[in-house]
Design a protein that fits this description.
By secondary structure, the chain is an alpha/beta fold. It has 8 helices and 9 strands.
């Protein structure tokens, strides 16, 4: 169980016997298996294996090796694995998570690696990122399906990501994504039942013992959502992984919902607007 009482895939507490073992145990349980400078690992018994290093190993070659001068946002940073890797490449990172337990782990790990001055950890939700400005790289992994308002969150990410977005979500496998190249009419709705049609399944109760697993999209849905948020997909390097770039037609693509997003952000009438 994690500190909020929800079931998660995480270490059972095997931390070894090195000099950092007492601190690792005291800060546990861990969801990220961090590799520390002395060779220690924070979750070597993780049920998913060497997680999330196995995902980073696939993504790393697709991201700039030199991020000096780049501003990076890590959304749902957990214990900070991705923040550490990006800071090692020279980035100035803002890492956010609503869970103070994970932020405590992340700050400690950054100190062990000597990069605490390059990572600003903040207790924030994804819905708060409008306060943080724009970023050269945004990491939005393992968060989307935990959100009650995931499409709003992705639209807010679009405002924040001025160049690269790294996206990952739990997905359902229902065949090769179907390209939707034309509009349907009302008498053609049955086509939406086809395998591979963009779908976003709603979880009313809980999935895998976690009541924050609200949604499960298929690949076609993820691709459609990323496109409609104003991104082009540059690579799909692994299962559920998408490396994207802000599209040249970003504002034109988002014009269909710009007034709604402006209303959410208070950019039309401002926060003091009187409701009817």
């Amino acid at each position: 169980m994690n500190p909020s009482g929800l079931k998660t895939l995480q270490s059972a507490g095997l931390v070894g016997t090195g000099p950092l073992a007492p601190a690792i145990a005291e800060l546990g349980p861990w969801f990220h298996n961090l590799h520390l400078p002395d060779g220690s690992q924070t979750a070597p018994d993780h049920p998913l294996g060497d997680f999330p290093k196995m995902k980073w190993d696939v993504l790393a070659p697709l991201l700039p090796a030199d991020l000096h001068g780049a501003r990076v946002l890590d959304i749902g940073c957990n214990a900070g694995f991705y923040s550490l890797e990006l800071a090692h490449r020279g980035a100035e990172v803002i890492a956010i998570d609503p869970d103070v337990h994970y932020l405590r782990q992340a700050r400690w790990a950054a100190e062990q690696w000597g990069v605490a001055d390059r990572i600003d950890y903040r207790e924030l939700q994804v819905y708060d990122i409008q306060l943080l400005g724009e970023f050269d790289v945004v990491v939005f992994m393992g968060v989307f399906y935990h959100l009650r308002y995931p499409v709003l969150a992705l639209d807010l990410v679009g405002e924040a990501a001025r160049d690269l977005l790294v996206f990952q979500s739990l997905t359902m496998r229902d065949g090769k994504p179907r390209s939707v190249a034309r509009e349907l009419d009302f008498d053609e709705l049955e086509e939406m039942n086809d395998r591979g049609w963009p779908k976003l399944a709603f979880v009313e109760h809980e999935l895998a013992g976690d009541q924050t697993n609200w949604w499960v999209p298929n690949d076609a849905c993820v691709e459609g959502l990323l496109h409609s948020a104003g991104f082009t997909i540059e690579a799909k390097p692994g299962h559920e992984l998408f490396v994207c770039r802000r599209a040249r037609e970003f504002r034109a693509i988002r014009s269909a919902f710009a007034d709604q997003l402006d209303a959410v952000l208070g950019r039309i009438c401002g926060p003091a607007r009187a409701l009817p």
